[in-house]
Amino acid sequence: MDRHDGSDIDPADQWVLDPETGDYRLRLDSDTPPAPTVPRQGGRRARREERRPDPAPGDRRRAGAPASRKAKRSTKRKALMWTAGTLGFVLLAGSTGAYFLYRHFDGNIATVDVGTAGSKQVTSKDAVNILVIGTDSREGLGAKYGDAGSPGHADTTILFHVSKDRSNATAMSIPRDMVTAIPDCPTKQKDGSTKTIPGTPVQGSKPRFNESLGQAGRDPGCTMRTVTKITGIPVDHFMMVDFEAVKTLSTAVGGVPVCLKHAIDDTDERGQGSHLKLPAGAHRVQGEQALQFVRTRHSLKNGSDLDRIALQQQFLGSMIREMKSGDTLTDPRKLFKLANAATKALTVDTGIGGVGKLTDLARDLSRVDPKHITFTTLPVKDNPTEGRFHATVVVDETKAPAVFSAIKKDVSLTEVRKKKPAAADARLRGAKADPSEVRVLVHNGGGPQGAAQATLEWLQNTEGVSHSTNGGNAPGGKRDRTILEYAPDQADQARALAAMMDLPAAALRPGTAAAEPGADMTLTLGRDFRGPGIPLGDPDEPPADIQKAQADKKECVG
Q1: Confidence category of residue 431, pLDDT binned at 50, 70, 90
Q2: Which of 288, 295, 329, 313 has the alpha carbon at shortest distance from 132?
Q3: In 55-180, where does DSSP find H-type helix?
């Protein structure tokens, strides 16, 4: 790599560790930092505006195709659709050394003001939620990839949650073709004013999640708001990368190890697909081949985008291991290439805009051990409004709430915390009353609308609990967990009801005073309630039956 001043000194050879600060710095002929070759104010986005419509000579990567060349739609129009989120996520999870080098590349990082959508604080003593977005925009890529004229949509999105104590992290992929409502979105305009883009309600197969970015001028803040609306999880920051990132970053680390259960020949009958051809077994992919790997779909088990997400998750986990490996962190040349590739591809919110802020964020989040970084996918099911052939999916309301709850409560998906004392489990042991003797008042304290009435009807018609009453909304307001309150002499009734409804021991709250004759127990349905008879699960255990993979596991997929 040549220096901008025309000399043949490789800057990667000039990075040295400063023993006083613990950071890397350039070792040049003088201690004076090199002058930036482009204006820093405004970051990469501002420079793009300055260059249009006359790109600077030698900047062919960002200039794109000449104006007279009509861009063609080809079989590669979605070549990087499912890959652009790779870089942002990897930088968060495996960034220990690379961020030390970014000071030299500060001007490369573009920023977007998302207003009140995120947090202005770089780090936090609480949990941190970062939305990693990859778009299908073709800006700066020429005609080879993406849609000509497309503003770019949220085609790869990962919600990266780091627990309050930094002991674990969950990376939840959000399917692009998931049908969901998009809320109203205030967006910052170039003149400094704010324009509110009206939301879009669900109508059949529209809108899809990927329309939360780009469509009608929506910015990444709109995607952040949409994710919060879906999950109830506040998003602090976003990181967005362009499509070329997976090629440059995978090459910068010397390739990414992957493993296939079955051979892949990803070309369909129309000649479309990633065109990846690999035999079963272990491989190391980089550049164009890495790009093909993460966009492969047709030759997988079901040929679906959900299968492709699983392939991407393996790639990301392997990339994290490569970035955290000693070979990468101790090689100045590799670190320089990583920093150069990363900053050219990165756009972030103003809350973390700039090398110093990103460094602070990386140091904070990189404390998570890769063995406690878990990949999962937001639980979805086929869209019931579609016919025989399903093109979209919707949130699985029976499984998704448990995943959202686990994330909110910092429950690690990689390991179960210590079990409750045996005394709690003892509440479930013992004689159970006959259903006809069970008396219960049901309140809705956070469950779905109509949950109290639905539970009442279920208890009466299915379980034979005739002495059950709908108490309406809970007088104490909404609560996260479902609880059953009862007197000591109602323990047999409580055990019977817990068995019917699959309530965990933690949901049973015995009182101290004896019950009045004919008194009811009180069942308050919380936000964890998904329906009568559906297990709530232990709040300290990860939800069962969800797709997941660990960043430190070297597993074969496909």
Answers
A1: very high
A2: 313
A3: 60-63, 85-93
The sheet carrying 128-135 orders its strands as 110-112, 346-349, 237-241, 128-135, 154-162, 169-174, 373-377, 548-550
The distance between the two most distant Cα atoms of the chain, rounded to a whole number of Å, is 93
Q: Which residues contact 298 (CB under 8 A, 6 or more apart)?
A: 266, 267, 268, 272, 273, 274
d(CA 477, CA 66): 61
- Measured CA to CA, the distance from residue 552 to residue 152 in angstroms comes to 32
Confidence band (pLDDT; 50, 70, 90) for 302? low
d(CA 476, CA 73): 58
Q: What are the tokens at 540? A: 């300290």
How many Cα atoms occupy the beta-carbon half-sphere of 393 within 13 Å?
18
DSSP 492: H
| Tokens coding 528 | 């964890």
Terminal C-alpha separation, the chain: 37
| pLDDT the model gives residue 219 | 93
Query: What CA–CA distances, in Å, run from 524 to 263, 305, 543?
Result: 52, 39, 21
Stretch (H or E) spanning 408: helix 400-408
Q: Give the CA distances from residue 509 to residues 3, 91, 97, 500, in Å, rounded to whole numbers and listed in that order.
A: 69, 45, 49, 17
When mean pLDDT is compared across 85-99, 149-163, 250-264, 476-490, the lowest value belongs to 85-99
Compute CA 385 distance to the chain's CA centroid, rounded to the nearest angstrom: 26
Lowest mean pLDDT among 211-225, 236-250, 439-453: 236-250
Residues making up the chain, counted from first to last: 558
Q: Using CB atoms within 10 A of its CB, is residue 314 exposed (0-12), middle (13-18) or buried (19+)?
A: buried
Locate the DSSP E strands across 13-81. 15-17, 24-26
For residues 185-198, average pLDDT? 91
Question: How much is the pTM?
Answer: 0.64
Among candidate residues 301, 313, 366, the one with its CA nearest the CA of residue 174: 313
Q: What torsion, rounded to 10 degrees, do the Cα atoms 368, 506, 513, 532 define?
A: 130
| Angle of helix 355-365 versus helix 85-93 axis, rounded to 10 | 60
Q: With pLDDT > 70 as the criterion, what percentage of the chain qualifies?
A: 70
For the chain, give the mean pLDDT.
76
CA distance 107 to 406: 38
pLDDT for the residue 98: 44
Query: Does 142 score more than 50 pLDDT?
Result: no
